[in-house]
């Protein structure tokens, strides 16, 4: 889930609440016209307006889903219309007005509580006009009862909204954390745990991004530590790992941050140099070779090459974004470089020794 889907969830909640509110109002208005209390059949103008608006607005919203209907405004409008309706009816029912007012207030509160259980503002705007009308009409006799009837759901909905807000904040924080962790895991899955360089998956990912932008003047370097089997056999696997870590750091150090350095296999590395001509690619390879040499990691079994750890490098240009073809050429050049005595650099199609 992203912040966008969170927003769309909130929008959906808003739409549902609005539709429910209009539906309940339409039903209430219809009920009030068809089966009025005390059989007082009066089609008051406000109840007719409520019914018409409740039917028209959802239909209009369906065709204009992007336009946001202001819930506060609508709830206040409907609240005022209901208050108007209640006053008209109460005037006609002078004898039974108290009971009618209480029932009318309860109905409006009930309707608001269902539609706006998490929106105290809309609930207040919708029910307060009716509450004020009831109080004005019958305040002297039933004031306390009316206040109690109104205050109870207001307190309940305020608490409910506070709980909901806390739950929302918790869910949002959880979602952000999960997104962050998923990103971290994704990043980690692209790195080689021993050296911290990109693994093959990370390399592929970087290549996809890079080559989508520009593949002009790119060079692939394939590097292999010389006689690493002998190093492992004599110094042990742990020391072999330490050597790999130090060589990896030297490779990263020797290139620009825009170049991609990946551990390609056991003691084999790949570097993609971008935006560079052949001469500079060759110079970079030489700098890498020298840096590894200068690490001065003892390797007494680096047969007839040196007494420390060295690397051989094959270079090939990247053409037509064909990374496999470039790798294949670089691999051949590396193979030749090894044959020429190791601690060497060779450009594909070129037998020049560094
Ligand atoms: N310590 C350690 N050794 C590894 C790792 N991955 C591969 N190796 C070793 O790297 C050695 C690679 O040896 P070879 O492919 O025979 O090549 P080499 O001995 O380097 O000989 P040349 O490449 O011809 O110079 C093997 O002994 C592997 O066990 C690793 O993660 N840690």
From TrEMBL:
<feature type="transmembrane region" description="Helical">
    <location>
        <begin position="146"/>
        <end position="163"/>
    </location>
</feature>
<dbReference type="InterPro" id="IPR050469">
    <property type="entry name" value="Diguanylate_Cyclase"/>
</dbReference>
<protein>
    <recommendedName>
        <fullName>diguanylate cyclase</fullName>
        <ecNumber>2.7.7.65</ecNumber>
    </recommendedName>
</protein>
<keyword id="KW-0547">Nucleotide-binding</keyword>
<feature type="transmembrane region" description="Helical">
    <location>
        <begin position="43"/>
        <end position="60"/>
    </location>
</feature>
<feature type="transmembrane region" description="Helical">
    <location>
        <begin position="20"/>
        <end position="37"/>
    </location>
</feature>
<dbReference type="Pfam" id="PF00990">
    <property type="entry name" value="GGDEF"/>
</dbReference>
<dbReference type="InterPro" id="IPR043128">
    <property type="entry name" value="Rev_trsase/Diguanyl_cyclase"/>
</dbReference>
<feature type="transmembrane region" description="Helical">
    <location>
        <begin position="100"/>
        <end position="125"/>
    </location>
</feature>
<keyword id="KW-0342">GTP-binding</keyword>
<keyword id="KW-0812">Transmembrane</keyword>
<keyword id="KW-1133">Transmembrane helix</keyword>
<dbReference type="GO" id="GO:0052621">
    <property type="term" value="F:diguanylate cyclase activity"/>
</dbReference>
<keyword id="KW-0548">Nucleotidyltransferase</keyword>
<dbReference type="InterPro" id="IPR000160">
    <property type="entry name" value="GGDEF_dom"/>
</dbReference>
<comment type="pathway">
    <text>Purine metabolism; 3',5'-cyclic di-GMP biosynthesis.</text>
</comment>
<keyword id="KW-0808">Transferase</keyword>
<keyword id="KW-0472">Membrane</keyword>
<feature type="transmembrane region" description="Helical">
    <location>
        <begin position="69"/>
        <end position="88"/>
    </location>
</feature>
<dbReference type="InterPro" id="IPR029787">
    <property type="entry name" value="Nucleotide_cyclase"/>
</dbReference>
<feature type="domain" description="GGDEF">
    <location>
        <begin position="216"/>
        <end position="350"/>
    </location>
</feature>
């Amino acid at each position: 889930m992203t912040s966008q889907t969170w927003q769309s969830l909130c929008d959906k909640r808003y739409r549902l609440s609005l539709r429910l509110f209009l539906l309940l109002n339409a039903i209430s208005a219809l009920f009030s016209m068809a089966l009025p209390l005390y059989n007082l059949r009066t089609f008051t103008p406000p109840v007719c307006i409520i019914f018409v608006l409740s039917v028209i607005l959802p239909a209009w919203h369906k065709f204009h889903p992007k336009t946001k209907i202001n819930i506060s405004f609508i709830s206040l409008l409907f609240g005022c219309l209901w208050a108007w309706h209640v006053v008209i009816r109460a005037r006609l029912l002078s004898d039974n007005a108290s009971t009618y007012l209480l029932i009318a207030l309860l109905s409006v509160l009930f309707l608001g509580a269902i539609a706006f259980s998490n929106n105290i503002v809309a609930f207040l705007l919708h029910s307060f006009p009716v509450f004020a009308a009831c109080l004005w009409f019958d305040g002297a006799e039933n004031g306390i009862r009316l206040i109690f009837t109104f205050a109870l759901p207001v307190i309940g909905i305020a608490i409910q909204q506070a709980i909901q807000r806390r739950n929302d904040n918790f869910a949002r924080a959880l979602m952000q954390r999960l997104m962050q962790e998923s990103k971290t895991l994704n990043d980690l899955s692209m790195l080689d745990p021993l050296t911290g360089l990109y693994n093959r998956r990370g390399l592929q990912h970087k290549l996809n991004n890079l080559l989508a932008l520009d593949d002009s003047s790119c060079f692939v370097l394939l590097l292999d530590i010389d006689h690493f089997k002998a190093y492992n056999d004599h110094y042990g696997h742990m020391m072999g790992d330490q050597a790999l870590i130090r060589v990896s750091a030297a490779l990263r150090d020797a290139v620009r941050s825009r170049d991609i350095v990946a551990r390609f296999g056991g003691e084999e590395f790949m570097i993609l140099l971008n935006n560079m001509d052949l001469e500079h690619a060759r110079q970079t390879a030489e700098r890498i070779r020298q840096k590894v040499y200068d690490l001065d990691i003892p390797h007494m079994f680096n047969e007839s090459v040196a007494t420390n750890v060295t690397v051989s490098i094959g270079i090939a240009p990247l053409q037509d974004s064909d990374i496999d073809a470039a790798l294949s050429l670089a691999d051949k050049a590396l193979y030749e470089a090894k044959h020429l005595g190791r601690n060497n650099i060779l450009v594909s199609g070129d037998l020049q020794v560094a």
